[in-house]
Design goal:
Layout lengths: L2 E7 L3 E6 L4 H8 L17 E5 L15 H5 L2 E3 L9 E4 L23 H4 L27 E7 L11 H12 L4 E3 L2 H4 L2 H7 L3 E9 L2 E9 L7 E7 L3 E8 L4 E9 L9 H11 L2 H22 L7 E8 L1 H8 L21 E2 L12 E4 L9 H10 L8 E5 L3 E7 L4 E7 L19 E7 L3 E5 L7 E2 L1 H13 L18 E4 L2 E7 L10 E4 H25 L8 E5 L1 H4 L3 H6 L11 E5 L1 H11 L1 H13 L1 E2 L7 H8 L8 H4 L6
Parallel strand pairs: 1-5, 7-9, 10-13, 13-15, 16-25, 18-27, 19-21, 25-26
Antiparallel strand pairs: 1-2, 3-4, 3-5, 6-8, 8-9, 10-11, 11-12, 14-15, 16-17, 17-18, 19-20, 22-23, 23-24
Helix pairs in contact: 10-15, 10-16, 12-17, 15-16
């Protein structure tokens, strides 16, 4: 088979690939990452590149994404263009996958040591009674993996039990486990190690149900060298937190874009990629690469030996959890929407390609249902929803929106497919929250906007789109049905290809030299997304027989929610119209819940109880949801006076 060179500009990266490989595949191999929302199906148009010095034509399915001039200048979709000779490819700014604003913290109270960050700062948790433990925050500190230094008595004629029995006998005096497992690797040099080091060793022990799994036995006292990683495996981003397991102290945090995004923007497109092309291994390796890079970066920055990282707790939605563990996710998207598992086994990290201590373990947070996963369980754990008598709502707004309402006696959950509009998809000038994205907008006598990184605008991210819809409605540029007024005299309101568009930034203002606009189709897509989220919240409240004024608190979690303007989100009908002080943005609660589980076995048991105690409502089979969705397709709602009394356009 012939092989050809592809050079990517302006990076000046050159790679040799087999004939027939796509430019998208070549770019990935060269370490040049392109935007893609569709997993290489050629339907999103985000991987636009320009081929120079060769006559390469866009395929018939791609030409709709380009103007006549662009086609003449060699623009093609990278995912649909195959290499047939040596090529030079220019990557325009809008096609480049850049690091976005990654939420690495929770806004919930979070200090430096376990005693200060005990998850239970309110009423005594019911789960303590299961262990007859006093309500002492320090007593809850019980890491997933602990190290115990042992000074063992030497064998005598009267005390001649085996070496392993001697270790277990001492451990039972110090730890709660009734039994212990010792793998072969620990036994192979155990005899010499004990005698050579005068019976002074450190046992590394992982908690697993009621069994202590001895991972390794070191010579001498190594209890000061024990670290764990809390991991948030999001659809869009992956965030890691390095934790010192002797004290619970957070050593550092690092995040990056989820490399799986190049195979599909949302969970459904990634499931389609796996189930249509048989590429489960590709997606599993992509997220493992993410994790290894982040962990290595944290370890080097803090001068920590990778071998001293003994465990990881990961929180992610059900699909991300399946992909992390290499489980086939196909049944998640098919009615009746059944995942392979909801309580995940504890596994050796090396089994899924994660590089920490060779005997280190990975524990994945339990899920609730196909579309309510471990990240939601972690969020519930972090904000304490399941431990308070007051009725509280937790909302995670994203491509898939998860909603939970309840208290310490009952919980209901549901999910709504909001689509990619809030992540920059399904809109002509939408983009993720990366450099140059417009994230704040105000319209008065002129349009004032703020971009990420203070850079020239390249597109509009989710929070900017919410602002924009609000401002268009407030200025009567769109009506209650979110349609433009065609008779409006405004130089920014133009007609392009038969559709009305509003110019947010003129060509001379932007990095690309092209106007940034929002068209009627874009607005329709955003309205469908916001309607899905609000209809899901309203349906869950109705199912519980509650009204919004009966909610004590609404917690909004996740990266997108963190950058929302609460008043504008309410004004377009995305969030319920309740007193603003009752709405709190809590940031990355998934990461905090994972960290709590990493450092407390009791928190993990609570997480299991949460996952098994939630009643999940499948909105696809809940008839009232359709009516609520239609009613929510207005600004802010068809029933504004009843549901949104404070909104006044």
């Amino acid at each position: 088979m012939n092989r050809y060179k592809v050079t990517f500009l302006p990076d000046q990266k050159e790679i040799e690939v087999d004939e027939g490989a796509t430019l998208f595949e070549a770019a990935e191999k060269a370490g040049v990452y392109l935007n893609s929302l569709c997993g290489g199906e050629g339907v999103c148009g985000k991987c636009r590149v320009q081929v120079s010095k060769e006559n390469v034509k866009a395929d018939k399915h791609s030409i709709a994404f380009f103007s006549k001039e662009e086609l003449q200048n060699g623009y093609v979709l990278a995912c649909q263009t195959r290499v047939k000779h040596n090529l030079e490819v220019v990557i325009p700014p809008e096609s480049r996958l850049e690091e976005e604003q990654i939420l690495t913290e929770s806004h919930l109270k979070e200090q430096q040591t376990w005693g200060e960050t005990c998850p239970i700062t309110y009423s005594k948790p019911d789960w303590l009674s299961l262990h007859k433990r006093p309500y002492d925050p320090a007593s809850l500190f019980d890491p997933l993996v602990s190290k115990v230094y042992l000074e063992l008595p030497e064998p005598t004629t009267d005390d001649n039990i085996p070496d392993t029995g001697r270790i277990v006998r001492e451990l039972r005096k110090r730890l709660k486990y009734p039994s212990y497992e010792i793998p072969l690797i620990c036994l192979q040099d155990l005899s010499m190690k004990l005698r050579r080091h005068r019976w002074k060793v450190t046992a590394t022990i992982a908690r697993h149900n009621d069994v202590g799994r001895i991972l390794q036995i070191d010579a001498g006292d190594t209890t000061g060298k024990n670290y764990g990683v809390a991991l948030d495996v999001g659809t869009t981003t992956v965030v890691t937190q390095l934790v010192y397991l002797k004290t619970g102290q957070v050593m550092g945090v690092e995040g990056s874009h989820n490399l799986q995004a190049r195979y599909g923007e949302d969970v459904l497109s990634r499931i389609a990629f796996v189930c249509g092309k048989g590429s489960l291994d590709v997606l599993q390796k992509a997220v493992a690469e993410n994790i290894n890079t982040l962990v290595q970066t944290l370890a080097q920055r803090k001068s920590v030996d990778i071998k001293d990282i003994t465990c990881i707790v990961a929180a992610g939605n059900t699909t991300m959890s399946h992909l992390l563990l290499g489980l086939v996710p196909c049944s998640i998207r098919d009615d009746p929407y059944v995942p392979t598992v909801d309580l995940y086994p504890q596994v050796a990290a090396r089994e899924v390609g994660i590089n920490i201590n060779p005997q280190g373990v990975l524990q994945v947070m339990p899920s609730v249902a196909s579309y309510v996963g471990g990240d939601t369980v972690a969020g519930i754990l972090a904000c304490g929803l399941a431990d308070r008598p007051e009725t509280t709502c937790l909302i995670d707004v994203g491509t898939n929106g998860e909603i939970v309402i309840g208290n310490n006696e009952w919980m209901l959950s549901c999910s709504a497919s909001a689509g990619p509009a809030f992540e920059g998809g399904d809109t002509k000038c939408g983009m993720r929250a990366t450099r140059g994205a417009i994230q704040r907008v105000e319209i008065s006598s002129r349009v004032v906007y703020e971009t990420i990184g203070k850079a020239k605008p390249r597109g509009i991210c989710g929070s900017g789109l919410i602002d924009l819809i609000h401002e268009l409605a407030r200025n009567k540029i769109v009506d209650i049905d979110a349609k433009f007024h065609p008779s409006l005299q405004d130089k920014r309101l133009i007609k392009e290809n038969g559709e009305l568009e509003y110019i947010v930034a003129f060509p001379e203002e932007t990095e690309t030299g092209q106007a940034l606009v929002i068209g009627q189709t874009d607005i329709n897509n955003i309205m469908r997304s916001k309607a899905a989220i609000f209809a899901a919240i309203k349906s869950l409240m109705d199912y519980a027989g509650l009204t919004f004024n009966q909610l004590n608190q609404i917690y909004v979690a996740g990266g997108f929610g963190n950058y929302l303007n609460v008043d504008k989100a309410i004004s377009i009908g995305l969030l319920p119209d309740i007193p603003r002080e009752k709405i709190e943005f809590i940031g990355n609660s998934s990461l905090m819940g994972a960290r709590m589980t990493l450092v407390s076995s009791y928190a993990f048991e609570k997480a299991i109880n949460i996952s098994q105690g939630i009643t999940n409502i499948d909105l696809s089979h809940y008839a009232p949801f359709a009516d609520e969705y239609i009613a929510a397709l207005y600004l802010p709602h068809i029933d504004r006076e009843l549901l949104f009394p404070s909104v006044n356009y």
